[in-house]
């Protein structure tokens, strides 16, 4: 299997060896269409030529996962522009900040939204010096606990990541990989698309979140990549198609019962661990215990004294955070990434994720609360409720979606769980919000947004 050095190398080699192989399948005008290697390569080259004539250094894309969108992203890279990938479902206020931070000179995608955001694009009269460079592809971090940052990756690092995963979890030409994930998230871009392209499989481009329940019966995939929240949704409605043989889970912790439910259906399930900063996956479970992950080639994983996961990832590693040298220096010590994740290694060198340092509340009395575990216990008395625990005035408080009139009933329900904790670790407040909790593209609650709202006062929730 070839280890491609970038998008152009992949397209050139594929066009030489299998020009008539189907690369993508997608919906157009109500029916399924396909694009061969040669067709896709031609489309990319024509679009890249158009981009070169524009003379821009940096283009941003509102990613909708469509075939034209994929063509445009590849073409942007081949034309020599820096490429910024944006979430089509993000609020305009967030997109404004991201555009201003990334030196974007033009914006492609949803025409109405692009026109609204035009004032935030860089122009020849903009102050400062652009740091945009060819082949740089900027992905924004999930931002679960802090402000989002643009991670500098390249088409080389992304293709290296696809090769890395493919060595442990190969697909073949008979496979159809359905991408149901957002392309602006590195897990979706690599494991929802490049993984299939690297292996010579065809990639089916999903029709967006509104069609997630129908897309498996529509495209009949043999493989999908999913975040835990999406897989739970698909399982709830029993829509997994009979051809499906493999599901790759990533971008969040996955309950063991979900693994077991999928396995009971005769579908192989694998779990991957990675970060935006490492161009997606660095470890994969391929057999047996889904939580026991083998390290991918070209990656070295070690642990600090307190169990924090440290990664050396070679070609997979980010260049840094765009225009944020202090953040880069804090995350990268030489060639080693300080992940903020906690883990352990067994005697065979397999990695187990045990938590996240940034999801640990350090209270005023020196005690610590590991939030995912804490919230899991709350789930026993607050089933089917949307909530999160955050720090407010140095004490843990509960933010829950609902009405303030529910306070007495919730307090009563919490008594049983809180009795198991020392007084200093018990919830010290309950605050209600009528809005859905802010989440990342992979379903993780963005605690930092809730914390910022609380700084303005509970009414801001």
Describe the structure.
- The longest helix has 18 residues, at 37-54.
- The protein has 14 helices and 25 strands.
- The N and C termini lie far apart (51 Å).
- It has helices at residues 7-17, 37-54, 67-78, 92-102, 111-117, 155-168, 186-199, 212-219, 228-236, 256-263, 325-331, 371-379, 407-418, 447-456; strands at 22-28, 31-36, 58-63, 82-87, 106-108, 136-140, 150-154, 176-179, 202-205, 223-226, 246-249, 268-275, 280-285, 294-295, 300-303, 308-312, 320-321, 332-333, 336-345, 351-356, 360-362, 368-370, 387-392, 395-401, 430-433.
- Helices cover 33% and strands 26% of the residues.
- Strands 2-1-9-8-10-11-12-13-14 form a nine-stranded mixed β-sheet, with helices on both faces. Strands 5-3-4-6-7-17 form a six-stranded mixed β-sheet, sandwiched between helices. Strands 15, 16, 18, 19 and 20 form a five-stranded antiparallel β-sheet that branches.
- Strand 18 and strand 19 (336-345) form a beta hairpin.
- The model has no long low-confidence stretch (mean pLDDT 90).
- With 461 residues, it is an alpha/beta fold.
- Helix 2 (37-54) crosses helix 3.
């Amino acid at each position: 299997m070839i280890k491609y050095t970038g998008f152009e190398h992949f397209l050139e080699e594929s066009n030489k060896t299998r020009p008539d192989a189907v690369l993508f399948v997608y919906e157009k005008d109500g029916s399924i269409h396909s694009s061969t290697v040669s067709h896709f390569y031609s489309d990319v080259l024509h679009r890249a030529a158009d981009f070169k004539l524009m003379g821009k250094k940096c283009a941003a894309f509102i990613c909708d996962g469509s075939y034209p969108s994929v063509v445009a992203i590849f073409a942007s890279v081949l034309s020599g522009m820096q490429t910024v990938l944006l979430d089509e479902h993000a609020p305009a206020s967030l997109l404004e900040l991201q555009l201003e931070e990334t030196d974007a000179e033009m914006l492609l995608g949803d025409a109405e939204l692009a026109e609204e955001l035009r004032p935030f694009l860089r122009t020849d009269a903009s102050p400062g010096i652009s740091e945009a460079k060819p082949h740089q592809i900027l992905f924004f971090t999930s931002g679960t606990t802090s402000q989002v940052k643009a991670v500098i990756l390249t088409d080389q690092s992304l293709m290296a990541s696809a090769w890395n995963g493919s060595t442990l979890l190969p697909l073949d030409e008979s496979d159809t990989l359905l991408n149901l994930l957002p392309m602006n998230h590195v897990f979706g871009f690599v494991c929802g698309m490049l993984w299939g392209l690297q292996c010579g499989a065809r990639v089916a481009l999903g029709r967006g979140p509104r069609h997630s329940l129908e897309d498996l019966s529509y495209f009949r995939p043999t493989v999908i990549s999913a975040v835990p929240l999406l897989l739970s949704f698909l399982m709830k409605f029993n829509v997994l198609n009979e051809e499906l043989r493999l599901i790759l889970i990533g971008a969040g912790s996955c309950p063991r019962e979900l693994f077991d439910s999928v396995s009971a259906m005769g579908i192989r399930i694998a779990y991957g661990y990675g970060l935006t900063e490492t161009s997606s996956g660095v470890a994969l479970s391929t057999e047996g215990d889904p939580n026991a992950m083998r390290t991918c080639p070209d990656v070295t994983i070690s642990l600090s004294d307190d169990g924090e996961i440290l990664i050396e990832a070679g070609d997979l590693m980010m260049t840094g955070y765009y225009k944020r040298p202090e953040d880069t220096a804090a995350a990268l010590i030489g060639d080693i990434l300080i992940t903020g994740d906690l883990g352990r290694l067994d005697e065979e060198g397999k990695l187990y994720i045990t938590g996240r340092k940034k999801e640990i509340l350090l209270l005023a009395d020196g005690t610590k609360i590991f939030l995912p575990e804490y919230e899991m216990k709350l789930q026993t008395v607050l089933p089917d409720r949307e909530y999160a625990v955050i720090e407010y005035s140095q004490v843990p408080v509960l933010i829950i979606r609902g009405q303030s009139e529910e306070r007495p009933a919730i307090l009563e329900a919490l008594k049983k769980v809180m009795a198991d904790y020392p007084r200093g670790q018990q919830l010290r407040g309950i605050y209600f919000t009528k809005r859905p909790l802010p989440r990342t593209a992979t379903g993780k609650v963005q605690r930092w947004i809730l914390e910022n709202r609380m700084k303005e006062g509970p009414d801001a929730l």
